[in-house]
Amino acid sequence: MSPIYKTSDENSSQFKNNPEASVLIMAGEASGDYHAAALVRETRKRFPNIRFSGIGGEKLEKAGMKLLLHYREINTIGFSGGLTKFRRVLSAYSVMKSELRSGLYSAFIPVDFPDVNMRLCKIAKKANVRVCYYISPQVWAWRKRRIFHISSNVDRMMTIFPFEEKMYRDVGVHANFVGHTMVRDIPGNLDRYALRSELGLMDSRKLVTLAPGSRRSEISRVLPVMLDAAKLHIRKYPDTQFVIPLAGPHLRNLIESFVVNSGLDIKILESDASRIMAASDSGLVASGTATLQAALARMPHAVVYIIDNFTWILATKVLLPLIMDPDIHVAIANMLSIKSGNDSDSPIDIMLKRGFRIPCLECGRPLFVPEILQHNATPKNLAFWLGRFRSEPALTAAIDEGFVRLREMLESDPSRPSASDIVCEMIQERVSMEPLA
Questions:
Q1: Each residue of 221-232: pLDDT tens digit?
Q2: Which value, in Å, is the radius of gyration of the alpha carbons in the chain?
Q3: What percent of the chain is predicted at pLDDT more than 90?
Q4: How far from each other are the two terminal CA atoms of the chain, in whole angstroms?
Q5: 76-79: long-range contacts (C-beta < 8 A, 24 or more apart)?
Q6: Does the pLDDT of residue 322 top 60, yes or no?
């Protein structure tokens, strides 16, 4: 099967004759900004007259989207953080609601961020705007009944994890696995030492990446623990060089203040985090999209997750027993390995076959990469894993084998429609129903 929507003179002329082919995007987080920007770039290359507007960040703006509001205004983590920005979230919601009701848009692309986007989907449907959801809400993790709300208000679902496609199709949602953007952006065969030269790092020293996240509150919780772990590690392995990839220039002063107070000699780089990870021997990574970056860059790592105590207690004592998947995990690599089902070559199975069992400290089940959560996230526990990555080559070889398998799981099939194919098809359907200008 060839891609469903190709550039042609006939299709291009239809968009040229209809200047109102506009798309609204809601990307409320850095990861959504990243994925949606790739979609916008690919679509605008094929049809420059499609106009994009919405909420996002620098990547979407650079790709050609008119930025109505920056996602930083509404991005939060945990309940205590959410309360402080509640008014801004409401304001952003009102802006998007007004845009959807304006009659200007052929399609709405909500990107993840379900607490706001699922409400906007309902408004879009009432306003007769086609809804093409990109990056599925994690209905498989918690509040599983949301999938029925999605089936009522979403025309197309574009998933970046393969197991999600069948889950949606089983309840009548027209869903397509479109591959993961990072697989294209992070090659699997980067030369570690060539990258070190490019980044101005020394070849002779072992390189460890500390990736503390992209939110100020997250960095303030996670980075001090990482730095204390680095102190423990460097006492035993003084030839180690630590590096921190900067998630954005607005975070430099915050990160520098923690590094200066630690007394450690750490390089802070604004280069692409995945290239820094690919150049590294190992690392510590805050939960989130960066965990997948680390896996695709083939960097052995432990995942660190620390939130405010109220949110942690609520999640583990109330939500987990009642509405959350008991197998939910913060590392994307672990989640994908578990959800691959009976696949005997999943990353977890590869680890077990090689004689390594990395246990979940909370539930006891085997994992692919270690997760160090909340009260277990101590400098000693983090340094323990850095030490194992340094001293056990058989362990890191098994992890690397799992990384290769993970990449295979996330690669898109060129014979199937891409995210841009699907968006263009939806706009074409809408345009064909409207009179030309």
A1: 999 999 999 999
A2: 22
A3: 64
A4: 34
A5: 76/215, 77/215, 77/217, 77/218, 77/307, 78/217, 78/307, 78/308, 78/310, 78/311, 79/308, 79/310, 79/311, 79/314
A6: no
Count of residues for the chain? Answer: 437
How far is Cα 147 from Cα 192, in angstroms, rounded to an integer?
42
CA distance 189 to 208: 19
Structure tokens at 229: 């772990």
Nearest to 305 by CA among 213, 382, 374: 374
- State how far the Cα of 19 lies from the Cα of 50, in Å rounded to an integer: 8
Domain 9-179+412-432: top CATH class: alpha beta
**429 residue type, one letter:** E
Q: Where are the domains of the chain?
A: 9-179+412-432, 192-410
Q: How far apart are CA 246 and CA 210, in angstroms?
A: 10
State in words which class domain 192-410 has. Answer: alpha beta
What digits encode the pLDDT tens for the residues 264-299?
999 999 988 999 999 999 999 999 889 999 999 999
Query: How do residues 150-168 score in pLDDT, each as one tens digit?
Result: 888 999 999 999 989 988 8
pLDDT for the residue 224: 98
Domains 9-179+412-432 and 192-410 are alike in CATH topology: yes
